[in-house]
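Request from the bench team (R.T.):
"We need a structural guess for the complex before ordering more 1,6-di-O-phosphono-beta-D-fructofuranose. Sequence and SMILES attached. Just send the tokens back."

Command: build protein-1,6-di-O-phosphono-beta-D-fructofuranose structure.
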Amino acid sequence: MITLGQFIIKKQSDFPYAKGELSRLLRDIGIAAKIVNREINKAGLADILGDSGVVNVQGETQKKLDVYANEQFISALSSGGECCLVASEENEEVVLLNTDVSKNAKYVVAIDPLDGSSNIDVNVAVGTTFSIYRRKSTDGNGVLEDILQKGTEQVAAGYVIYGSSTMLVYTTGKGVNGFTLDPSIGEFCLSHADIKIPETGTIYSINEGNYVHFPEGVKKYIKYCQVEDDATQRPYTSRYIGSMVADLHRNLIKGGIYIYPSTASAPKGKLRLVYECNPLAFIIEQAGGRATNGYERILDIDVTEIHQRESIFIGSTKMVLLAEEYMAQYSPKEILKVS
Ligand SMILES: O=P(O)(O)OC[C@H]1O[C@](O)(COP(=O)(O)O)[C@@H](O)[C@@H]1O
Ligand SMILES: [Mg+2]
Ligand SMILES: [Mg+2]
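Reply to R.T.: structure attached below.
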């Protein structure tokens, strides 16, 4: 049995110039994940379910657990001293961690502290996503530009899934590994080494309740998934948890595609590029899958704002490629006026 901490240190040798800062930063994320996990596990007993009454920059009412998770991750990153700045779904502006220890830290972190907020109160799996970049600014507190980097610049990324078990899955650009939290010892232990997503699958994940608003290409792809054809194991199975991390984790293990497309009312989709699409795209690509906005690789998309939204087609390579063909045929980029 190897713990996350032991694995991180062991893998440090993959990076000849590593001085342990990234390892310690990953450790800090692991610590915050354990604290959040403890609250989630007994959420019904503690006064932590329900709305906080505060509306965040997304125009969504923050859940109490959104706020709690945000505080725990920011405080762990702040006291850990390896991160100088955080961009969070729950904060309109970047958060400067200008404590003596973190002021000159080399890394910046983008985070969705609690993903799948609509599922918190109903005991359905939720998650946390994180993206780590090397800062560009040389000294002092760090600046907005440090976080507005393309997904290709990520040095590490991952997610935590708080489900029937709690797992932390991450990559540093050398494959994807998964660790399951063993509550009896309070440690994340390696349970899924070198995860590879199947090249194709029979699961599609999309909120079909929005069907009428979807681009024609997506409508056609859904119809393709629902046609009877034994040779291609269709109709596929529709699975949609409504927590992106949980839907993605299932598809990572079993094969499948998750789509959150643009719609007439949300021409750029719903999900946020910096702390939802980019970290999960890095994971999926490192596991051998594919992630695009229907036209372009997610990791190559220019980042201009912290909370910018992007449509996403992510999962098994063959399924994403086919969905892209439907988009190219029925919803060519110019028609959808996608910038
Ligand atoms: O209810 P919808 O429109 O299908 O959206 C569900 C999607 O929105 C999200 O909940 C957005 O994330 P947050 O909960 O972090 O805001 C995703 O996890 C999920 O896949
Ligand atoms: Mg989210
Ligand atoms: Mg969230």
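Two things stood out. Helices lie at 4-12, 21-41, 64-80, 216-226, 244-254, 273-286, 317-330, 333-336. The mean pLDDT is 93.
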